[in-house]
Write a structure and sequence with these properties.
6 helices, about 190 residues, elongated, alpha+beta, 7 strands, two-stranded antiparallel ribbon
Length: about 190
């Protein structure tokens, strides 16, 4: 049996808060914090939350070296520059509160898009493909390594729950399985 680790669908701020500790939201990031965040978030798929029902998804390729309040980018071909904070306020009515944190760099490396962390959340159901630390491995093993009897009890509890919730579906499935088992036994006896 195989098992995999999945990234919890959290807001980027909450993910970073868990990674670095609770006090990170109130202070500027150190270089080591910046490296930790960059490693943890590289390749992770995010969905934007500042655009209402339009939840575009992006893959992170980096983290800006500057805090959000200092980031500017060219708006048009005339090289007119605009700050990320001002752009999000004018374009989406979204006020960036944590301007001391860096932005996520998404899109391609030639033309990066900057997304503030507080406007992003991790896409649900994404596998975590990076190496797990020892604590994570221990937790995964505790959850996945069960004695056969314990696993059977867990399965029976799920079946019981669904038999109360969806009795016709569970009954028809169990009936089909029972018929298949009887047919297999007859086939074995005939040989």
């Amino acid at each position: 049996m195989a098992s995999a680790a999945f990234i919890e669908a959290l807001a980027a701020i909450d993910f970073v808060g868990r990674l670095l500790g609770k006090g990170m939201l109130s202070r500027p990031l150190s270089d080591s914090d910046h490296v930790k965040i960059k490693r943890a978030l590289r390749g992770v798929k995010f969905e934007v939350t500042h655009r209402g029902s339009v939840g575009r998804k992006y893959r992170v390729f980096g983290l800006t070296s500057q805090p959000t309040r200092e980031l500017v980018f060219p708006v048009d071909d005339n090289a007119k520059m605009k700050s990320v904070v001002k752009y999000f306020q004018e374009m989406y009515g979204f006020t960036i509160r944590l301007t001391h944190l860096p932005c996520l760099q998404v899109g391609n490396q030639k033309k990066a898009n900057y997304l503030p962390m507080e406007a992003c959340k991790i896409v649900e159901g994404r596998r975590y493909t990076k190496r797990l630390n020892e604590k994570q491995i221990t937790t995964l093993l505790k959850v996945t390594c069960q004695r056969p009897k314990d696993r059977e009890n867990d399965i029976l509890q799920v079946v019981f729950f669904y038999s109360l919730t969806f009795p016709t579906i569970v009954f028809s499935y169990l009936f089909q399985e029972n018929c298949l088992c009887k047919r297999k036994k007859k086939l074995h006896l005939a040989k």
